[in-house]
Amino acid sequence: MSGWLGRTIPWIFVGLFLLFVLAFLVAPTAVLIVQTFIGDKGFTLSYFTGLWDYQYRVAFENSLILGVASAITGLIGGFLLAYASLQPGAPSILRTIVTSFSAVAANFAGVPLAFAFISTLGSLGFVTIMLKHLGINIYGMGFSLYSLTGMTITFAYFQIPLMLIIITPAIQGLRAQWREASDGLGATSWQYWRLVGLPILTPSLLGGFLLLFGSAFSAYATPYALTDGNIALVTIDISNVLSGNVMSDPQVGAALSTGMILIMAVVLVIYSLVSRYAARWRR
């Protein structure tokens, strides 16, 4: 295909993509910002400053704790599992099983995931009952599935496999010659990973952390189904103020959403700075 038609068709698809981004990303964000700072009497900061109220401050704190804790759990677990399965001496069947399971588990979330863990580790879950018969009462020891700790464990079910999928290509990109040169110079395994391996993997690890953090920070269905909304999270508070029977305040919901966007923007800026530093180190 040549001529003006061949030059026009790619721009049609680019235009459709830009239109999609404008309709489903830029426009909703602009509406949220307008609702946050424009009230019935014009410009106002009352909705945004209201985020410092105790109720919403606790919700942001809990969401940040859940996002960071689950992202760290997924990052460490996924990295170690990927590294173990990619070892030269590891059976190929193990790598196939781990990869296949991860592809399925990484997409298992929402209400089904919450129900699965309630049936397993809930107060009447079969693992909880089995441990109780063995004389181990995990709920008597202070554990609760319906808490931030319980949600972190629940999120780890799909975040560890997701991290494995993300980091596997990066680990495979580490050249064997780098490790051989490191060993030849007398470096220990720790020195190799501290000075060579981890700096090279930093952008991939940070990108994976950002993805895991974002998925946990913005999660709604799993926490709500798991705790019935009894733990304050930003997403649950947004749902309450937008569709709650007791209180309906779209401006507060917009302010909460804007706060989430600002937090994710800060995380993206940090990711960009670290990625640039890692790129200079590799050069």
Task: Present the secondary structure layout.
Layout: H1 3-37, E1 38-39, E2 42-43, H2 46-49, H3 54-85, H4 92-105, H5 111-121, H6 126-133, H7 148-172, H8 176-184, H9 189-217, H10 221-227, H11 234-243, H12 250-282
Antiparallel strand pairs: 1-2
Which structural traits does this protein have?
283 residues; mainly alpha; MetI-like fold; 2 domains; two-stranded antiparallel ribbon; 12 helices; globular
Characterise this structure.
The protein is an all-alpha fold and about 280 residues long. α4 crosses α7 and α11 (about 235-245) packs antiparallel against α12 (about 250-280). The protein has a two-stranded antiparallel sheet. Helix content is about 75%, strand content about 0%. It folds into 2 domains: about 1-45; about 50-280, MetI-like (MetI-like fold, Orthogonal Bundle), CATH 1.10.3720.
